[in-house]
Each structure stands twice: as structure tokens, then as C-alpha cells.
Write a structure and sequence with these properties.
- By secondary structure, this protein is α/β, with parallel strands linked by helices.
- The chain is 40% helix and 15% strand.
- The protein is built from twelve helices and nine strands.
- The strands form two sheets. It has a five-stranded parallel β-sheet. A four-stranded parallel β-sheet has the order 2-1-3-4, with helices on both faces.
- The radius of gyration is 19 Å and the shape is globular.
Length: 286
């Protein structure tokens, strides 16, 4: 997809973006991606949607199934996403929920592969909150044979069900999952250093407490120096400079943060083509 650019694989297909949360990368990458595939995209803002308030989730899912070919939904609650998927007659993509962020993980794996030429056997160190991004990143890493280390403060660990699921994937491949408190312990000799915001949308009331709890979990040049010399730095954006990342560090030579952002476009194009049958038409396409 990245090499081919624009094509007509999904000509006459329609994607509906249904967002309860605002977004830069998720919205633009899906919209541009669908248009580059020759399809159409319709964006429904939080005010327009009113899921569960203005209209029931099952009703919205059933109606959109009559209009469109696929839905990408960005919701606060994962339960909302599940209700929509259970009532829709078309594919529903998780464009972010409070539990997972799988589209980001797809782009992350693609970015790591581009820079390391492999995924199997690499060690990824995640520093910070065991949030939706961490959950999907862990599951993807475990599926791909990567070692995963996470350093989180007490009370901000990965959910037990996600951890158990990832351990099941990892056990069949031989990769390891390690949870620690000390960032340096996670980062030492790692191939990838990854972090995310301390305060996500919907957590603004916890901002003061979270800044205090995560004060020792900032990724700076000193922490990064404990990783391998050729380690790469990753962040899903938006970044809060001076909080989870030191000022300007995402612009350093080791950073692949903006490659990650670009690859959201290409990974999602592949996802859409696979879901809607376009990948089958790619055979022999030049």
C-alpha cells in the first residue's frame, strides 16, 4: 500500500467515521486512506452522533449498515463498540476505545519492521500507563514474537485479562512479557523504547494526581541511553512535551515518531482493503 499510493481498489465503497472523541491522525489517516483507495468517507462528529442519547447504539448500527460498507468507530467505552459490532451487518473497526487501540498497534508493528527488518526476538520497552495503547501494543508484540517489558507505577498496571491473553500468545512463540516498576529496568538493552501520554481524554480531572504519580516515568536522553545504541523511540502522538517525553526528544535521531504517524495511513489502507475485499484485487495490480 505504501509503495502503490493511489488506486481504485475500493471504488464505490463507503466508510463512515463515527467519533465520540476528537482526533487528528485517526480521522485524517482514515479519510485520506479511503480516498486513496478510490472510496468515499463520511465523518460523523460527537455532536452529530449522540450515541445512546439521541439514538440507541443498535439503531445507529442497523441504519448505517444500510448506507455504508464499513464503520470505524472511536468511542469512550469499549462496550459501545461491542454493541455496535453486534448489531451492524457490516465490519466495524475499533478506531480507539478505552480498552484498546489496535489500528495504532498495526502502524507500530509496520514502523518497527521498516526500521529493524524483523519483529521476532526484538525487545520493546513501554514506559507509563497500562492504557489502551499499551494493551494493543502488548497483544501485537506477543503475536509477533517480540519481548515486551512495561514499567508502570503501582495502580496503573495492564489489565489482568489483557495480560493473560498476551501471555497465551507469547507462550506458543517463546517471547517473554515482563512487568516492572523501574523504567531503567525495562529500557536496559531494549530495541524499542515506547511511551504515551500520562493524561488521556476523559482523565482531565485526574491530571494533577497523574502528573505526580508519573513524575519518574519521563523518557529523556538519560533513560534512552540505557537502551541499545540503535534503539528507536516511539510515541503514538499527541505528545505532551515536558511530561512523558522530555522537551524535543521526539525530534532526536533515534525517534521514528513521525514515521509511526505516517504509517497509520498505510496500515489502515491495508486493513480496509482486507476487510472489503480489495486485497484480493491487489494480486497482479501495478
Amino acid at each position: 500500500m505504501k509503495n502503490e499510493g493511489w488506486n481504485t481498489l475500493l471504488h464505490e465503497k463507503v466508510l463512515v467515521l463515527m467519533f465520540e472523541k476528537p482526533s487528528t491522525r485517526t480521522r485524517v489517516s482514515f479519510e485520506v486512506g479511503m480516498r486513496q483507495l478510490g472510496g468515499q468517507c463520511i465523518y460523523l462528529s460527537p455532536e452529530e452522533v449522540g450515541l445512546g442519547k439521541r439514538e440507541s447504539i443498535p439503531d445507529v448500527a442497523r441504519v448505517l449498515s444500510r448506507y455504508a460498507d464499513v464503520i470505524a468507530s472511536r468511542t469512550f467505552s469499549h462496550e459501545t463498540l461491542e454493541i455496535m459490532a453486534n448489531n451492524a451487518e457490516i465490519p466495524v473497526i475499533n478506531a480507539l476505545s478505552d480498552l484498546e487501540h489496535p489500528c495504532q498497534a498495526l502502524a507500530d508493528m509496520m514502523t518497527i519492521y521498516e526500521h529493524k527488518q524483523t519483529l521476532e526476538g526484538l525487545t520493546l520497552a513501554y514506559i507509563g500507563d497500562g492504557n489502551n495503547t499499551a494493551n494493543s501494543l502488548l497483544l501485537a508484540a506477543a503475536m509477533c514474537g517480540m519481548n515486551f517489558r512495561i514499567a508502570s507505577p503501582e495502580g496503573y498496571d495492564l489489565p489482568e485479562n489483557i495480560l493473560h491473553k498476551a501471555q497465551g500468545y507469547a507462550s506458543g512463540i517463546g517471547s517473554e512479557i515482563i512487568c516492572v516498576r523501574e523504567p531503567r529496568a525495562a529500557v536496559t538493552n531494549a530495541d524499542i523504547v515506547y511511551t504515551d501520554v500520562w493524561i488521556s481524554m476523559g482523565q482531565e480531572a485526574e491530571a494533577k494526581q497523574r502528573r505526580k504519580v508519573f513524575a519518574d516515568y519521563q523518557v529523556d536522553s538519560v533513560l534512552l541511553s540505557h537502551a541499545k545504541q540503535d534503539a528507536i523511540l516511539m510515541h503514538p502522538l499527541p505528545a505532551h512535551h515536558g511530561e512523558e517525553v522530555a522537551e524535543n526528544i521526539i525530534y532526536c535521531q533515534q525517534s521514528v515518531v513521525f514515521d509511526q504517524a505516517e504509517n497509520r495511513l498505510h496500515a489502515q489502507k491495508a486493513l480496509l482493503a482486507d476487510m472489503l475485499g480489495g486485497s484480493e484485487r491487489m494480486v497482479g495490480y501495478r
